[in-house]
Each structure stands twice: as structure tokens, then as C-alpha cells.
Write a structure and sequence with these properties.
Elements lengths: L7 E2 L23 E6 L11 E3 L5 E8 L4 E6 L4 E7 L2 E5 L6 E5 L4 E4 L5 E5 L5 E8 L8 E2 L1 H9 L2 E3 L5 E3 L18 H5 L6 H8 E2 L1 H7 L5 E5 L4 E2 L4 E7 L14 E7 L2 E5 L2 E5 L4 E4 L5 E5 L6 E7 L11
Parallel strand pairs: 2-3, 16-17
Antiparallel strand pairs: 1-22, 2-4, 4-11, 5-10, 5-12, 6-9, 6-11, 7-8, 7-10, 9-15, 13-14, 16-18, 18-24, 19-22, 19-24, 20-21, 20-23
């Protein structure tokens, strides 16, 4: 019997961090809750709780925000993929956040290109949650902030050290002797980041929930991968499984798999064990373990399936 209880994270048991990043005190961004579900993520705070520490080749996290709360402009060296669990979200990008934007609803997915500053905000009427997949075990070495974000944070007491750790001057914290602040990008360096328009980004990087449900009418919809509807090789693959495309037989993989329900309840079974997952739950399945997967109730059912690959976690791949 294989005990997988330490590889299941329930939505109601998620432990938030409200000081995860440099903009945690900046007005408009100071009500964020960040969650690190699998892997160390890119949090800059020692207060961040990691639910599953086992390396998977990618990280799983989440952001919960009340209406009108935003996440400041930043970028990563590896893939950053978001799907909306709840709420209505506006994603924006560019050096000043005005190069392009898209509004996403529950189930929609966005593979944001590397080399582009991006941010997001909850534009719905209730608290919302988005789930994130970051490429690599170390998520590319951290977050690269737009220079103005670091400047605004300093005005509100937060300083990021070159070690990647945050210090709150309002609490009397100071950088240790011999430790310098994280260097800001120069204006020339910041201006060199991409400025793609909305028309350039949406066709290759955004997919809508109901379109993927339609494509998953017989077999799972391959969402991100070398031959998927979003063509990328970020060190993991993403598929959408629906009631219509749930596998009839047990399956196993040579890499860890992560199951993340979007709609409905899902029964996962393996030798000597069984559990039911609801939207917002996350489950990691070890490599080599055969498991069955099926909706456990009637009605709409959809689930994101994330699988590690042997591809390196580098910049967005193009053919």
C-alpha cells in the first residue's frame, strides 16, 4: 500500500503568506496572499510555507487576491503558466504594463512568454484565486522586478537583498553587514525586455476553457507541449482532462504528475488507496505509480494534468 497523504494539498488547508514579495506593502498590492504548493517557488520571504518540498522539475503555486488587488510587474527566466481557478482576472504586460492585456475567466490558461514584464489584478467582485506553474526546481533563480517596483517598495519599507531575502525597515530590519541591495535593472536593460501587443500574444499563449473542453471530447486536450495547442517545451506538459476524456485504464508516468481539478470532483485510485479531489486541491502522483482517474459525481468535470518532462526549464521555446 502506498501512502500519498503527504502529496495531497487541500484547498482549505492552504497556508498563505502575505509578505512573500517586495510589493507586499505597496498600496494596491498589499492584500495579496501567495501560496507555495509544490517546490520552493520564488518567494522572497522566510514566512512562506512550502506544502510539498519534493522536487518535480517544476513548481506549483497560487495567488489569492481580493477585488482591485494587483501583482506588480516582474518577469522570470523560465515558464510561468497561470490558470484561473476562481474570479475574473486582467493580465497585463510590457515595460510599464501597457503593451497589451487579456481578461481571463475560470479555467482559462495563459503561458506568459519569458523575457516580458507581466502583472495581474483581480477585476472581479469577489476574492479570486489563480494557480501557477513555474518551470524548473529553482524556478529560474527568482523574480526579476521592473525597476519602478523596487523603488516603490523602498518607499514603503521593503528592501530586497542581493541574497533574495526581504528586509522590512518599518520593523527596524536592516541589511546585514556586507550584504548589498538587489541590483536594479538599468533603464536600458529594462527597456530591452519585450513589448508584444495583445494581438501578438493571445493566439500563441492564451487558451479558453470552453474551447479546451470541446477539444477534450474523446481524448485529453494537450494544452502545453511540443505538439500541443500551445507549443512550448518548458520542462513540463499540461493537459486538460474532462469527463468525456477521462482515461478508462490506470496510467503511470516516468516523471511525477500533478492533478489540479478546475470543475467537479475527481476520484483518484491506486493500489491500496483512494481519494477524492475538489477544485483547488492539488495532488502529486509519484513516478512509476499506476493510478486511475475518473469524475466521482455527475455534472461538469475538468482537471489540469501537469507532467514533468526531460526538457530543460529555459526560456519560452519556439520552433
Amino acid at each position: 500500500m502506498t501512502d500519498l497523504s503527504d502529496r495531497i494539498v487541500r484547498y482549505g488547508e492552504l497556508k498563505p503568506c502575505r509578505t512573500a514579495f517586495i510589493d507586499a506593502h505597496t498600496p494596491g498590492s498589499d492584500q495579496k496572499e501567495n501560496f507555495t504548493i509544490i517546490g520552493g517557488g520564488v518567494s522572497e520571504s522566510a514566512d512562506q510555507h512550502v506544502h510539498i518540498k519534493l522536487p518535480h522539475g517544476f513548481n506549483i503555486g497560487a495567488a489569492g487576491q481580493p477585488p482591485k488587488c494587483r501583482n506588480s510587474l516582474h518577469t522570470h527566466r523560465t515558464a510561468e503558466v497561470f490558470f484561473v481557478l476562481s474570479g475574473r482576472w486582467r493580465f497585463f504586460w510590457g515595460r510599464w504594463g501597457d503593451a497589451g492585456e487579456v481578461v481571463l475567466e475560470p479555467g482559462d490558461i495563459f503561458n506568459i512568454p519569458t523575457g516580458v514584464f507581466r502583472g495581474f489584478e483581480n477585476i472581479g467582485e469577489d476574492y479570486g484565486m489563480i494557480m501557477a506553474i513555474l518551470g524548473g526546481d529553482d524556478a529560474g533563480g527568482g523574480v526579476i522586478w521592473a525597476p519602478q517596483v523596487i523603488e516603490d517598495a523602498a518607499d514603503h519599507g521593503l528592501v530586497l537583498a542581493e541574497t533574495g531575502k526581504l528586509y522590512d525597515t518599518k520593523k527596524g530590519e536592516r541589511l546585514p553587514e556586507g550584504v548589498a541591495p538587489m541590483p536594479k535593472l538599468t533603464e536600458a536593460e529594462a527597456d530591452a525586455y519585450g513589448e508584444p501587443s495583445t494581438a501578438e500574444v493571445i493566439p500563441g499563449y492564451v487558451r479558453r476553457y470552453w474551447d479546451m473542453v470541446a477539444l477534450a471530447d474523446k481524448t485529453p486536450c494537450q494544452v502545453i507541449g511540443e505538439t500541443a495547442i500551445i507549443r512550448d517545451r518548458p520542462g513540463f506538459e499540461v493537459s486538460m482532462i474532462t469527463r468525456a476524456s477521462a482515461p478508462a485504464d490506470a496510467q503511470s508516468h516516468s516523471h511525477p504528475a500533478v492533478l489540479m481539478p478546475v470543475k467537479g470532483h475527481w476520484r483518484v485510485s491506486w493500489a491500496g488507496g483512494e481519494t477524492t479531489l475538489a477544485p483547488g486541491d492539488t495532488m502529486s502522483v509519484p513516478e512509476g505509480l499506476a493510478y486511475g482517474l475518473a469524475p466521482s459525481m455527475s455534472g461538469e468535470a475538468a482537471l489540469y494534468h501537469v507532467l514533468g518532462t526531460d526538457d530543460s526549464a529555459g526560456p519560452t521555446w519556439t520552433e
